[in-house]
Amino acid sequence: VKAKMSSAKKASMGTFQPLRHRSGTMRDRLHNYTKRTLGAGGSMNEAVALPPGESCAGWVAVHAVDFYNDVSTIWAVMAGDPYLSSFRPGEGFPSGVEYRWSEGTGRDAQTVSVSAPVYIEKVLHWISEQINDETKFPDDDDEAEALRVFQTPQFAALCGQIFRRLFRVYGIVYSSFFGTLEALGMAPHLNTCFKHFMFFCTEFGLLPEREVEPLEVLVKPIRKQYYLTKQQGSVGAGP
To answer: How many other C-beta atoms lie within 10 A of the C-beta of residue 3?
Structure first.
């Protein structure tokens, strides 16, 4: 059974629980495909490529959950640090940008200035709410119904927002907290997670260029590696 967020209070404290794929479902099958590919020594390009015969929308849905888990696990290491409370609204973001949080919907929506740590907490709590909503992220035995939801324009828009916000969290972590994670021995894990995330986003065109620009110095070498290894794989495959 999928792990639910225990409460909004816990979320505000940074105690995010990994979200699970229910055993025997399409999401669980696709999740395990990625694990097997990487575990068998497959390349990152192979791990992000759409498996034969599978739905692209379902593949993106599974990775939205898995990448959320990666980011929330990384942030959990930082979340209890008293240093986070020293950030004021507008502080802690990548150079030249400030990510603001939107409260409410429609005409009632308001954009508020928050600190980078608060922004991360809000993003992770919001994503967990979307994924735990069975009407938005079905995770049951009815694969046809799940695919029907995954293939709607509304789901595509939701996933786009999830991936953009996860990218912003990575931007904050690298710009303000990399030194702390490095001191804790977490830098290799962070780099691997971000590389996997960027390979996937590049494979499926999930990030607008305007989002990528503030982190261009980090993204450019990863994209270069993605295209180089993809080209080498194509050449190796032959006609």
So the answer is: 13
